[in-house]
Amino acid sequence: MKIFQINLLKFNTPNSGQKIDNVSRCENSSSPLMMSPRLEKDTVTFSGRIPSIVTPTMEDLINRTKAVDVLRYNILRLAKHDVPCPVCGGLMFDSEKSVTFDKKLLQCKNPTEILKCIEVYSKYLHPVESEILKMMKQDNLYHPERTLFEMLKRRLPRAEKRIVQHQSKIFSNIGLLSRKLPEEMRLNVQNLLNDSFDRILDPRETSRFSRQIFIYKLKNAIIPDTEKNKLREKLKIEFISKHSMSEENFESNMASYVETKLKVAISLWKVYTSNQMAILTEAYKLSKAYNNVDAFIVKYAKRDYKGADPDYKIATRMLNNSLATVEHVVAQSNRGTTEPKNLSLECAACNNGRGNDSILKQIEDNPNMPVNYRRFMKRLCDLHLQNIVEKSYITQLNKTYKRQSCGILDADLSIMNKRSNKKQKILYIQSGITPTKAERRQARKMKLKLKAHKNNRNKI
Ligand SMILES: [Zn+2]
Hints:
Layout: E1 3-7, H1 16-28, E2 43-47, H2 58-77, H3 95-107, H4 111-120, H5 127-142, H6 148-177, H7 183-201, H8 211-222, H9 225-242, H10 247-267, H11 274-284, H12 293-302, H13 310-320, E3 324-328, E4 343-347, H14 348-354, H15 359-365, H16 369-385, H17 391-404, H18 420-430, H19 437-459
Antiparallel strand pairs: 1-2, 3-4
């Protein structure tokens, strides 16, 4: 690593604290690579890789975020051409359609109208939501006065019974697997399971069971305290080196910083033993509203809508699941960039379900992904032929997917080449370089003259 001498005055970035940390490291080492003798006060030595000597100003940073926003916006705009999701294969709903749907929904006066409004967009519904719509339409035939919320409520007891049976089975499996854990962690898991059992059997609406919170707590329970403490210490050091603030604010700020960072670290934790992994796999089997009709009924029949119109909320939820979102192929937590080649489209349900998983894990969870991915890419190629998407974006995106999935996800992009000659022709005409008839005649004459001249020269 090279050591540079840089004037601190040039460095007025918001996170200059980090650089000072590097400075102190460098001062201790008497490296022979030092380029010039140490200077006075305002000049410090800096060790580390520097991408460019010019520090970005605030304006640069704002422009850069704007550029990313424009990029995201452009990618999201593709969704309005009915692009299928590369993971689940369902058609994606774009924000423009979502706005018109919302407007229509607000004008609906009774459940029948709401159902008709949803039906217009039925091709965008995911399997669970289509099933719910079918069920609601049938109910509506016989009881047109019944609201969507009431329909779900009436089906709640049966759905809840099935869900509780399924959950209890998974809880007992987790209990059995936890017997192999060290005593301290086994007790943690046991307490969590008891609490969850109480929750799912509790008829009151205040103590609802949440799959997401359960999985987070389970991860927390199986990571040993010693590991957590180590992580906490590391985060404390990181905070101290980053910030230089007054002592009064320091303690409280540090505590909140460390705890929130620790939460993130636990949710991203990847170092598990095989037994811990088996416990988590079992927990992930818990059904959720995205993939189970009963779970959908239980979730939205028991939900507290806090004064909002439940029917409106249920109707928007049914379509919001298919809303197109920008997806980082390499997750940002794994140092994924915001370059076009790393940005793809995915429906909201698949994007939320993925979390920070790798593409390989995603394929494992969605066995149909390779087929759906090819359909997605084919649609992009079609859009390229219609002059909507750039070819380079598609080829680069395919490369990223291919690399991340170890070759499992790979699409045939040769359809795009068909048009290449045509495209050149179109560009030729559009750019105004096409010669007129007279020009062509003149060019032909010139050619003949040149030929004659050459022939003459050869004769001599
Ligand atoms: Zn999807």
